[in-house]
Amino acid sequence: MLSPTINNMSTNTDPGDTETVPIAGNRRLWRNFGGIFSTRGDGDAAGADGYVEFGISDPERSQGRTLGTFAGVFSPVALSMFSALIFIRVGFIVGNAGLFVTLLQFVIAYTILLFTVSSVCAISTNGAVDGGGVYFMISRTLGADFGGSIGTLFFLANVVGCGLAVTGCAEGLIENFGPSGYLVEDGGFTLPDSRWWRFFYCSMINAVMLVVCLIGATMFAKTSVMILGIVSVCLLSTYISFLAQGPMHVSIPQENQLVQNATNPAYGFYSGLSRITFHENLYSNYGKDYTSGGSQVNFAIVFGVLFSGVTGIMAGANMSGELKNPSQSIPRGTLSAVAFTFVCYILLAILMAATSTQFLLQNNFLFLMPINLWKPFIAIGITTATFSAALSNLIGSSRVLEALAKDQVYGSGLNFIVRGTWKGNPVVAVITSWLLVQVILLIGSLNTIAQINSVLFMLSYLATNLACLGIELTGAPNFRPSFKYYSWHTCFFGLVGTLIMMFVINPIYSSSSIILCLVLVIGLHLFSPASQGAQWGSISQALMFHQVRKYLLMLDSRKDHVKFWRPQMLLLVSSPRSCCPLIEFVNDLKKGGLYVLGHVKLGDYEDNDDPTIDEYKYWLSLIDHLKVKAFAEVTLAKTVREGVHHLIRISGMGAMKPNTIVMGFYDEENLYDFFESENSSYHTMAFRNDPTSEEAEQIFPTRKPGLPKKLSAKEYVSLVDDVLRMRKNICLCRHFHRLDKGLIARSNHIKYIDVWTVNVFDPTNEDPFDVVSQFMLQLSCILNMLPVWKRMHLRVFLCETQQPSTNNAENFTMTPQMPQDLSAEYRLGQQLKLFRITATIHQIPEWSRNDDFTRHSAILKQFTRNKNEDADTGISEEHLNRSRMYMQRVNQLIRERSDQTAVAFIYLAAPPNSAQHGNAKSLAYLDLLTELTADLPPTILVHGIHAVNSTTL
To answer: Residue 24 carries which DSSP code?
Structure first.
């Protein structure tokens, strides 16, 4: 019988990120997982070998996961939140802020931390957590670029934090065993003290940490548990001393020059448990900090000291790669450590306020040593606490560096880190982190960068809150963490609180770190292979989906107004290989509107799967290659005409639907392959089944010479008619394989964008004022706004005829009060002014002088004026030839004026309805268009059906 597979987390993970455990016969284990099953696509239950999948890494990697909740999470977090603060700075906080404000500050600080921890717990219980801690969680939620930048800064913060803690540990040794150490007896041995001696002590401590980390995470965990035990004993001795010791005088350190002098040594008073002392310490009385040159202390400084000392909540998450069950251990261990340290701090603050005078608390930060029942307890506590913080930072930085290398955030630059792993322990990452810490130690005094180190840590906490807030707001169905004690409110308040505290600690460093983070985000987004691959998913996509859906629903097509009209293009593409310049040109013409590349694939669904599913990804790659802002729509149909109907009807969404259909021209010109030509700016080998082989089968193949087209001439004309009857504007584009935007940008010879407003099939004086002409002017004006096309001059060609107008001037609606006997040129000039279009008007004198132009009745006139005709009445050869000669003369007239033209817009007359007029007139219509546009520059035949110009504010 097949054993089902149980997913530990609710989100999808990589197939390799699983650990398998046999469950045959273990029904208790089965019940504990609550029967959450997952099956493979073939219908069989996954795990046929009787294994359960956990959301952790591959079996070889999982062998290195040896740490449980206490050793792997609780101990590192508790020690990081204690550090040296609990023995050195709690007295400073109580002595200046008073007990009430101190308790308030601890509540505020731990509330912010608790909100951040809830975000950490939510993310860590929503999926398989691998090595890298906070970097892993942020990158898998916010994406590679944001996660990589935060991970880099978090790595640097851990390195600098390790250097700070090592320096603090060495200073603790000097203060206790140096020339004037507290624990040095007269004539006894003392540690020599100088800058280089201190560097030697720091290096020795760093070497010991290196040995511990090289042995592995298990050794680190054992060391942390042992140190936590030592610190707990030292802290317990402090509590007992507060209760057991009686009143005494405590000397003030010599370095406190604010109250100390050579003739009369100053002393502070320790009262023991006293109601009077407790009452005096209830309220704030800010003094001066003798360790910083006597600077005035205030609420912000005290809170900054407190908060920066308790921000080690990520120490357990950093060990995520070594935890047996990170999704369970991280929440339990972190929350319990936060609660434990909070109780210890509150109890210590109350006992200090009840036993030590304010003068003593403000002027001797090491007063716990002389009042302790055994002075070495405090020295041991300070040394071991700082050592554990340094050790936690060193191993944490190595794990973040390993994760950055594995994810290829910086490409192959960190491959040496990945290759240097032995039995799951990233040896090279540890050594690299150790070397960087050693370089930091050369700086000597690290007080100058202590604040920016705290700011960088808090920036990572801010990003964690942001990640959880973002994914919660998106309402993503797969975000359902097993940790339930969070909401968007906790994420938001954690984010705001952390951000405020960053600027409380140091606004300059906070601003600088945020700017540095943004620079890294942009750099990684542009250049990182991990960011380009986007293999983890990015919350930006989920947020954009959420917002776009909301705004699409708000976008009401019934509220459309001509003032805000913009072209929304559907470009019908057979093979993009032969029309790259056209695709790029339409991208320019859309003016920020919707742009869809539509393709019809011939076939049916009877026996095969939908072939458009596999092909769609190639169209997305095409859009990336051409760098156009477009969508792709591919449909399957039995005929091209049917497929085009599908695309016109279903492309877009809501009010964002194509209003203009763009098609290539139907001619017999040889197709040019822009992808294969090495001289083409579009050249690429990516669109082959094997990009490394020139013999591989092409993607987007073009029609072979001599083979019939998939679309007949009659169907093509019918399509044009279909588009107009579907109330869409139509553009037919010819000769765009000749378009070279690079040449246009650098050539002084190409100067013009031409607009031919005359309907050559039925020329009248009112042509410049109908809807089609206005639509052409709008498109040409849009094109003329763009950077490459802005240097072009817009020319409008007016072909004024001798024959009287067959239509009233009612189409010229802009200025109806103008006399109708004014020239068409004058009226067109006024119209251009009203439309705010800068263009020159050019009359064509040949048109009015030539009787062939004025008397000609083009072939289309026979049926455009008679829509009720039921059958094709036939077209005489003589009439067709005369019409063809007429079009050739018009073509010659246009060519004579197009020597310096980049693009020409030409009036497109409505085609005959093939269902009413038969095949002959459709072929004649296409034949005349072919003659009209022969040998012209890139040409767009335009027929608009909507008024798109506005003259009002």
So the answer is: T
